[in-house]
Design brief:
The protein is 48% helix and 15% strand. By secondary structure, it is of the alpha/beta class. The protein has a single domain, classed as Alpha-Beta Barrel (TIM Barrel), CATH 3.20.20.220. Helix 3 links the parallel strand 1 and strand 2. Helix 3 packs parallel to helix 4 and helix 10 crosses helix 11. The longest helix is centred in the first third of the chain and has 20 residues. The structure holds flavin-adenine dinucleotide. The site of flavin-adenine dinucleotide has 23 residues, from strand 4, strand 7 and helix 10.
Amino acid sequence: MPGITERLLYRVAKRWIAGYSLEDAVKVAHDANNRKLRAILNRLGEHTPDQKLIQSYTEEYLKLLDRIRAEKIEGTISVKPSQIGLAANPSLYKSNLLRILEEAATDDEFVWIDMENSPYTEATVQTYLEILPSYPRLGICLQANMKRSESDLKNLLPRGGRVRLVKGAYPENAEVAYSKRSDVDANYLKLMKTLFAEGDHFGIGTHDGKLLDKARAMARDFKGAFEFQLLKGIRDDLKPSLVEEGYRVSEYIPYGPEWYNYSKRRMRERKRNVLLLLRSITG
Ligand SMILES: Cc1cc2nc3c(=O)[nH]c(=O)nc-3n(C[C@H](O)[C@H](O)[C@H](O)COP(=O)(O)OP(=O)(O)OC[C@H]3O[C@@H](n4cnc5c(N)ncnc54)[C@H](O)[C@@H]3O)c2cc1C
């Protein structure tokens, strides 16, 4: 039985996650589809060197792909490298990712790779580049707070890389990352311009109204394919209007008992979320 603090936190966190189980995730994916949003399902959990856990996370993604196919869910999965082996060793990560991709390929399913904190960036990008020629329906996340993302993007695009652009959720040091919000936003805009100029099949992963307006303006002359990607429970007001405007929109839906760290990140992003928590405690 979870303690009182966990139960109160969970009450707030529930807006950002589907729940504890794969069944919860499948149900929320159908809900998203009913709102004309595609679903990007992510099993929470990261940074694990534990071999048993790594195998069970990998197998869970295989099950998820199976359910997506069987229930005709419009959507896909997004995996965290350090969840399926990268925190143990890169070759284990690569072989587990290949297992997932083989399963996805049976139905031409697209797979996304999340980007984690900077110790994992190089191996994540390198493994992506190694695998991409055999599995072109594979996308990777790049973070605008990371100084290296500009050169990663320039490197990935000519090779057919498909990129989800986000601001970056992990605290990083000044050597590798921009820390001022204005610098991160400026870099996001710069990378987004590159995506609209040279990219195709990319994801604009932000809830930032100013950047979204700029993306809409750039989309007017863009002939390729892209989608907006937003997190479950954030800017729900915006999602139907983007759909109505005719854009393809995906909702990223995490689930799993490891919801606490994910929710802490969402709290950190906005002071008002801490107020939500306090309100849930005070009833
Ligand atoms: C689909 C998707 C996938 C992602 N994948 C990754 C990944 O693989 N790696 C990674 O490091 N990060 C990932 N992120 C998280 C991302 O890096 C940011 O932490 C997160 O999106 C918040 O940044 P923002 O672009 O919305 O801008 P912000 O400047 O943080 O927010 C802009 C506006 O959005 C709204 N908003 C933002 N966050 C919240 C919140 N928590 N609660 C309520 N309102 C909020 C507010 O109106 C705010 O003013 C992903 C984000 C999305 C949307």
